[in-house]
Structure formats: C-alpha cells, structure tokens
Amino acid sequence: MEKLRITIQKSGRLHEKSIELLRDSGINLPNGSGKLISAARDFPLEILFVRDDDIPEYVADGVADVGIVGENVVAEKGFKLRIMERLGFARCRLSLAIPKNIDYPGLDYFEGLKIATSYPNILRKFFSEKGIKAEIHEISGSVEIAPGIGLADAVFDIVSSGSTIMSNGLKEVETILHSEAVVIANGKMDPVKNNVLEKFLFRIRAVQKSTNNKYILLNAPNDKIPDIVKIIPGMKSPTIMPLAEEGWSSLHSVLSEHKFWEVIDQLKRLGAQGILVIPIEKMIV
Ligand code: PRT
Ligand code: ZN
What we know:
The protein is α/β, with parallel strands linked by helices. The chain has eight helices and 15 strands. The strands form three sheets. The chain has a six-stranded mixed β-sheet with strand order 2-3-1-4-11-5, sandwiched between helices. Strands 8-7-9-6-10 form a five-stranded mixed β-sheet. The structure holds phosphoribosyl ATP (PRT) and zinc ion. Phosphoribosyl ATP binds at residues 9, 12-14, 51-53, 70, 72-73, 90, 92, 157-164, 179.
C-alpha cells in the first residue's frame, strides 16, 4: 500500500501529544528514533519531524500529505490547506495585550501604536478589517518583554494561562483567534493515498471520541429509570439490567465527560447510586 507521509513537530509543545495520538491509533514508531524521518511499524505511514513553523508549507507543497500543527501557525502561514480534524490539545489564543495600568478604551487605542508580534499576518489582516493603522513589529521570541524594554507599546501573542502576560506587567484586552492542534491535509491527493488518509482519520476520530466520552454505570430505583434515560440517552439507548434487589436496575450508558459534570447533581437527585465512570479505549459509532 502506498505510504502516507505525516509531518509532526520534532520537539516542543505538540510533539508528545502528536506521538500519543498516533500510538493510541495503533501506529507505533521504532524506538529511539532521533531521525528526521521514520516509518511506522504497523500502518503505511512515514513520519517527518520538523519545526512546527514548517509544517503548513510542507503539507501545502506536497512534501508531506498531512500534518499536525496549531491553528495559529496554519492561519499565520496562509497556505491553502484542508483542516481535517480538531484535536483538542495545545489550546491557546492569540491576543492583544497592553500595559496593565492603561485604561483600555477599545480597539481605537491601537491606532498609530507599535505592536510586537510573531504573528504579523494575522494581526495585519485583523487591523485592516477593523480599519486600524498600526505599526506591526515582527519579532521571533520573547514578545512579551517588548513593551517593558521600550521596543513596542503593546503585544500580540499566544496566551494560555495568562501568567506570562501578567508577569510582564501586561493585560489581555482583545482575543483575535482561538487555536488548538489540528490535522491538516493537502487538497490534492491521489485516490490511493486518499484511501490511506481516510483509514488514518477513521482511527484518529475513534480515539478522539473515546477520550471525550466515558462509559457510565449506575444503580437506580426502577420508577426513576425513565427520567434518568432522558438525561443520559447514550449512543443508541442505554442498557438497563435488573439488579438482584427487587425494584432496582443497573443502567449503562455513554456520555461526554463535559456532560457528566453537568448532569451529576440531577442523577443524584433522582436517586442514582453507585455511579461509576469508566474510560473508553476506542469508540466507533
Ligand atoms: O521549535 P518549534 O518551532 O517547533 O516550536 P515553537 O517553540 O515555535 O512552538 P511551541 O512548541 O512552544 O508551541 C507549539 C504550539 O503550541 C503553538 O504554535 C501553539 O499552537 C501551541 N501552544 C499552546 C502554545 C501555548 N499553548 C503557549 N502557552 N504555544 C506557546 N505558548 C507560549 C507563548 O508563546 C507564551 O510565551 O507560552 C507563553 C504563554 O503561556 P501562558 O500560560 O503564560 O499564558
Ligand atoms: Zn515554531
């Protein structure tokens, strides 16, 4: 079978999770590979390790067929690419931040100011849409120190917890882009490769669904079961089995982790007991 070539980050914030996703999809790399390129043992896939900034270009040029990279980098590079799947890790946002003692009056504040960023294209596009003229100063690292050393009046940078911004005496005033890791693909792929891509995506999606969902088991009085089913309908419908104790049943269902925290109080109020929440390894719907 023709090999699909994927490009992932060599080292950094995306590396571990990208490898983990491949591993959970049943795709294992040979051990101790510090190499540029490596072939998977159990799937027709070659892995090319590069800096994250190069990933969109490699995929757009066809050097690789797919890549795993942050949406922020995809947006900045501006190549024509297909986003096949959002992966839910490396979440962050691109925001404008200003010195914290300034009373922020709104976007007009940035008119004529000097703004330091590693994402000039995204910022230029945003300002042009808003009709704001500012001086964009591109720097490649430690953007957050620029105002403190007099290099810029404000910054446009990645924010995650917000602590970097805060410890540099800045405050976040506008968020322009929300980002997470995504799978990108080249738009022009021959049918054979496309077939391998579909198989690859199928596996990734099964892993994604399983990590977002949990298997739930609980015991409840029979007369409450209809109400509980309304709250946790499951994949098709829940499994209900009688308990040895008269008048009680065990209910099994699948629900998203997020939903679980929403409904837990309702379940308890309805008399659910012995609630177990169990991880799912793979999920195919
Ligand atoms: O060497 P290479 O070029 O491959 O890696 P890199 O150094 O350019 O990127 P890396 O590994 O730092 O980040 C890769 C991707 O992770 C980014 O492109 C984002 O999509 C995503 N990501 C998620 C982050 C963060 N969270 C993050 N917090 N990237 C960077 N940061 C930095 C940010 O630059 C800032 O300095 O962390 C600081 C802010 O964090 P908080 O938590 O203090 O707000
Ligand atoms: Zn980078």
